[in-house]
Amino acid sequence: MNYNKKTVKDIDVAGKKVLLRCDFNVPQDKATGAITDDKRIRAALPTIQYLLDQNAAVIACSHLGKPVATFDSYVKKQAEKGKDPASITEEEWKKSLAKLSLAPVAKRLSELLGREVIMAADVVGPDAQAKAAALKPGQVLLLENTRFEKGETKNDPALAKAMADMAEVYVSDAFGAVHRAHASTAGVAAYLPAVSGFLIQKELEIIGGALANPKRPLVAILGGSKVSSKIGVINNLLEIADTIIIGGGMTYTFLKAQGGSVGKSLLEADWLDYCNDMMKKAKEKGVKLLLPEDTICAKEFSADAEPILVDSMNIPDDCMGMDIGPKAIAAYADAVKDAGTVIWNGPMGVFEFPAFAKGTQAVAEALSNSNAITIIGGGDSAAAVQQLGYADKMTHISTGGGASLEFMEGKELPGVACLLDA
Ligand code: ADP
Ligand code: MG
Q1: H-helix or E-strand spanning residue 308
Q2: What is the pLDDT of residues 56-93, one digit of tens each?
Q3: Nearest-5° angle of CA 365, CA 366, CA 367?
Q4: In what order do the strands lie in the sheet with 17-21?
Q5: pTM of the predicted model, to two decimals?
Q6: Which residue numbers in the chain have pLDDT < 50?
Q7: Does 226 qualify as catalytic in the annotation?
Q8: Catalytic pick from 226, 288, 299, 411?
């Protein structure tokens, strides 16, 4: 995939209507609907502000949550959950949609921008059409939740065209959604000149740069829960990294494959052969693959379980691995010390429990002390780095969990591929 894409600065937007795909998929309080974290709205501000400074008319759009776009599918979904289909009313379905309206986002965005944000009652319906047609340079319109349209997730060309017809230029800044080929993230680019906003530009420059032309040595730190969810990342990074460091729940399938005893640790028996193949492949390619020499384990999976230090190859039968041990920490810190680039995906242990967060914390600390370009991808990894207080010490924390994972897998991202090449 070509990571070199035109940005909003490479195209004339002055006085034009610009359809801007944002990632306004914000977390909300279940009971009150209040936005509990407006980070994603703030992240969109530089691109919106730039467009307004250029005197563009901004038609912003986003999805929010997973609304069920038609009453029929709503009834089906509720029935699957065990509800009596006859008891389900259209009113109930409409209420479920209302909860996922972007109106609270419009309000917050308006506060942050210090100017009015006009809210449309639909995505491409009469209200959106009328408001988009009347929109003047310097004004901001927010369309309703794109997933209220059943064509959105199907990447329906008719929906994509209807969205495109409201504008003259398409700018995508929703990095968190670029791994999805939906009407508003990819389809629409068939009908308009399409460029990236500043958020996507940064993701492409830093992650794309590290994948295509890394400053070496490139060290990949891979952890998290399962081998099976990281196969794509391991495969791809094995091709380009100089060193691969393994931690987290996936460690134990590797250790078992090497003949170790892993007790009650997370184990994916179906992937033992794969792990052996990967170790072999790494050797053939001259890639250093590091497994933790020691492990902190526990007798049960709980925050107040007693941490027990053991040799990684001999985890007792009644114990499960919860974190990497001090020898592993020292070895891993040493491996990143002189790195040119570090790509980190997946926590080293169950960082949600403070007693088992030391490995993840130590790796974050090592990254913050190194001169390497440090890149964090993956939702939980980003959360861990934030929670442990290292967020501003990293070169880049990706704004897209699933998207960054697919990026690191070397997959084509439909929401990026559809943009004009620079
Ligand atoms: P990311 O979202 O960054 O890609 P993952 O979703 O793959 O990361 O994994 C994150 C989860 O892995 C965390 O919730 C963490 O508790 C869990 N985890 C890490 N180490 C272990 C372990 N030893 N046993 C069980 N779960 C683990
Ligand atoms: Mg995760």
Answers
A1: strand 308-311
A2: 999 999 999 999 999 999 999 999 999 999 999 999 99
A3: 90
A4: 117-119, 140-142, 57-61, 17-21, 169-172, 194-196
A5: 0.91
A6: none
A7: yes
A8: 226
